[in-house]
Amino acid sequence: MRLRGWTSGDAAAVLEAFRAEDMRTQSAEPIATEDDAVRWMESWAARGHAFAVVLDDEVVGNVAVTRIDGHGNGWVSYWTTARARGRGVAARAANLLAEWAFEERGLYRLELGHRVTNPASCRVAVKAGFLPEGVERGKLVYDGVRHDVERHARLATD
């Protein structure tokens, strides 16, 4: 597995990933065409650092660190394609991202959150070394329904 920057040639992989029902709410804008996918990839430059997760020469996911602040903190996000799920891909990718963020970017604290109704994302976070820190009640809203979010963090010293 390796992480690399996104390229316009990855548009088909992004489009395929966002066709999955559970991925449709993971982007602020709908991703319905390859042009949408290219815009999504290009948008990361203004928000932080995003990497394509590549396994056996196939793009199978995304890991990113955004919201980097003056205190050395960043916000981590991840997703994998349906075919890559259940194989430990997201946890390994999140771990590689954390190592990069600490060593190359000089960050100290990485945070992430997942809906409490998403135990798979919780397992990814824990396997990647992100310790649970608490529940933020009613933090997210999807389709008019509020969701509690469990926050996790990993420190450079962990």
From TrEMBL:
Q: Which Pfam families match?
A: Acetyltransf_3
Q: What is its EC number?
A: 2.3.-.-
Q: Is Lipid metabolism given among the entry's keywords?
A: no
Q: Which InterPro entries does the entry link to?
A: Acyl_CoA_acyltransferase, GNAT_dom, Ribosomal_N-acetyltransferase
Asked if the record carries the keyword Acyltransferase, the reply is: yes
Listed A to Z, the keywords are: Acyltransferase, Transferase
Annotated GO molecular function terms are: acyltransferase activity
**Domain N-acetyltransferase: residue ranges:** 1-148
Q: What is this protein identified as?
A: GNAT family N-acetyltransferase
Species of the source: Nonomuraea mangrovi
